[in-house]
Amino acid sequence: MHLLHSLHMSGQANTSLVSEFILLGLSQNPDLHLPLFCLFTGLYIVTLGGNLLIITLIRTDPRLHKPMYFFLENLSFLDFLLISVTVPKMLDNLVKNKQSISFTGCISQIHFYQVFMVAECFILAIMAYDRYLAICQPLRYPLVMTRCALDLLVASCWIIGLAYSFAKTTLMLNVVFCGPNVLNSFFCDAPPLFELACSDTSDLDLFQFTAGVFVGPFPAMTVVVSYIPIIYAIIRIKSAQGRTKTFSTCASHLVVVALFYGSGIFSYVIRPRISQQNQMDLVVTVTYAVIAPMLNPFIYSLRNKEMLCALKRLFRQKNV
To answer: Where does the pLDDT of residue 39 fall: very low under 50, low under 70, confident under 90, or very high at 90 and above?
Structure first.
């Protein structure tokens, strides 16, 4: 982390640089810090517990050793990491009543957050393709979704996330921040940080435009293209019970996709183009950074009979 700060300082010796950023957080009222601390501590614990439970169920129950649950396990792991990048620092600031983060800490937070978020974008896209194969091409499904293919697909998500974030972080280190240093967020997020740059950001803007097409719209389009034939196949099922059963395997994924992509598009596509920021920005930021990782385990477990059965079996074993 010291290397990040050294790289930022090199070549900028004659410029008054920002050494830390002030995070406005969720409220400037000190009386609300304790209630907010208790609330988000509870949300954080629930998120960690829920995602760890999903991972445990899939790891320990042989009936869940299927491609769909392998991807779900990786999604839960990403949600576990995603919320751990942002919330602990926010809780620390609420306790200390000091809403600040160092330059190095800010860049590091953005770097790891981008890694996990981009990887999750592609995991969700792969999960849509998995459902397409299972419903529309069931005979090819076991031939395509082999163990080697599963490992390769998940590894590709991580590699894309790491490559994208590394390139973006490298470009960010060449940007000068010389004041103001106040971020309208509770963690270091890229859009509000770029607004504080006082040097040329054309290279960074070009990278975000070109690479952003691949890491944003491409996974979203994969989801859309996968679900068009899925919906058509479900409609063609004659029995209502068959349609309901088939659609139930996709419903949880669709809810998670809508929550993740909806809030993400607003934060990274719509919000940067709005000159006036308002309280709604914080609501959306909390949604994709805190609420979405917390809800995902419950969405998948409560709407999935196999997950509920696995949960019951786990509790029965514990009782025995």
So the answer is: very high
